[in-house]
């Protein structure tokens, strides 16, 4: 990497030092939050020990493996995977509903952290080929490591006192988002220059194609949020058993299946605009009815809301795929269908995280204690 410009090398050093800092901070920052975690979840002293040890044990066990994987499959690839895993683990830690989940997500954090430290060091060493520059870079590296261990308790104390213990994990997420955004931008540039790209980014200039993708994310975020909140409402608020809750939801599923077939016929005979319009109206009406649910809502009202919402969810599927495919050449139909499906899954996955805290406020019973019982 001797052909890199000085500015480029400094940027690489900054990124590597940031990764070291966040991984080092997480070794000590949680200790300050232990009393708050114990009161919030709640947790035993043994459980609190595992919230700490899950990170240190996993990261210590995987450091050598991560270094070997980096040498074999590429340092940048492993570093990016580690940063993604660490950021995801941090986000999941911040929304953990119980101590068991927190311990598991701390382990995921550690998996990502094990890919950051040794890999970032090797990237730094290979980036700075000049002996003096390398020594200076390694010195900066050591300073950042020491700073991270000192900053952990102080930063943790400020966040716990001012916001709450969940905030100690939020500081890692923005870094992952910024490097993820940079990676996305780099992917767009790289794919636009390839002769046979995985997906031609120019197709997103097509209004039907981009519109279908956006509608898919929005529609299935709504559906994913419904499925997540509905089971909590039926069981925690209404007191139904798991079987009864499943039986009550059949009306929504049946309406979805029926109107998905109706939607396909409408797209074939009238085009996608009519079923998309009907889907939007039905989803809006169904969502409005669902916002009026209380612990005493009659089951009949509930069934009406389910059917209307299910009808909207069913109507939206066929026109999304049809519109996405129509926005690309026939040779790219497979990619178009895949993008539409990916957009649906993205919306469904994102909605669960977004609705987690809302679900805890809406349920009358205590928060879910995943793994802490």
CATH architecture of the largest domain: Up-down Bundle
Q: Look at the structure and give the CATH class of the largest domain.
A: Mainly Alpha
The name CATH uses for the topology of the largest domain is Growth Hormone, Chain: A
- Topology pattern, helix = H, strand = E: HHHHHHHHHHHHH
Main sheet makeup: none
The geometry reads as flat
Radius of gyration: 25 Å
Tally of separate helices:
13
CATH superfamily label of the largest domain: MFS general substrate transporter like domains
The counted number of beta strands is 0
The percentage helix is: over 70%
Q: How far is the first residue's CA from the last residue's CA?
A: 52 Å
Beta-strand level of the residues, as a percent range? under 5%
Structural class: mainly alpha
Which stretches are poorly predicted, pLDDT < 50 over at least 5 residues? Answer: 359-373
Number of domains: 2
- Residue-averaged pLDDT, rounded? 78
């Amino acid at each position: 990497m001797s052909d890199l410009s000085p500015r480029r090398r400094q940027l690489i050093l900054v990124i590597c030092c940031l990764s070291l800092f966040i991984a080092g901070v997480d070794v000590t920052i949680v200790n300050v939050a232990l009393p708050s975690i114990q009161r919030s979840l709640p947790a035993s002293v043994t459980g609190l020990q595992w919230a700490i040890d899950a990170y240190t044990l996993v990261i210590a066990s995987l450091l050598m493996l991560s270094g070997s994987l980096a040498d074999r499959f590429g340092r940048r690839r492993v570093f990016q995977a580690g940063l993604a895993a660490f950021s995801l683990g941090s986000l999941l830690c911040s929304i953990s509903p119980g101590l068991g989940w927190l311990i598991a997500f701390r382990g995921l954090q550690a998996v990502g952290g094990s890919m950051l430290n040794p890999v970032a060091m090797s990237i730094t060493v290979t980036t700075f080929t000049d002996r003096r520059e390398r020594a200076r870079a390694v010195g900066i590296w050591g300073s950042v490591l020491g700073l991270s261990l000192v900053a952990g308790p102080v930063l943790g104390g400020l966040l716990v006192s001012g916001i709450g213990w969940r905030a100690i994990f939020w500081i890692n997420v923005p870094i992952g988002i910024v490097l993820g955004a940079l990676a996305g931008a780099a992917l767009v540039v790289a794919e636009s220059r390839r002769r046979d790209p995985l997906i031609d980014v120019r197709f997103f200039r097509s209004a039907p194609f981009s519109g279908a993708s956006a509608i898919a994310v929005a529609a299935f975020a709504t559906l994913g949020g419904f499925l997540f909140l509905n089971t909590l409402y039926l069981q925690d608020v209404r007191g139904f058993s798991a079987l009864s809750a499943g039986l009550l939801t059949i009306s929504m599923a049946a309406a979805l299946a029926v109107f998905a077939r109706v939607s396909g016929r409408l797209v074939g005979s009238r085009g996608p605009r009519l079923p998309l319009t009907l889907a939007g109206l039905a989803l809006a009406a169904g969502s409005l009815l669902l916002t009026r649910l209380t612990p005493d809502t009659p089951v009949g009202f509930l069934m009406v809301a389910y059917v209307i919402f299910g009808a909207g969810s069913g109507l939206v599927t066929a026109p999304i795929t049809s519109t996405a495919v129509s926005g690309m050449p026939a040779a790219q139909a497979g990619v178009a269908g895949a993008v539409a499906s990916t957009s649906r899954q993205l919306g469904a996955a994102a909605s669960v995280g977004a609705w987690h805290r809302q679900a805890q406020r809406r349920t009358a019973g205590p928060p879910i204690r995943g793994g802490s019982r």
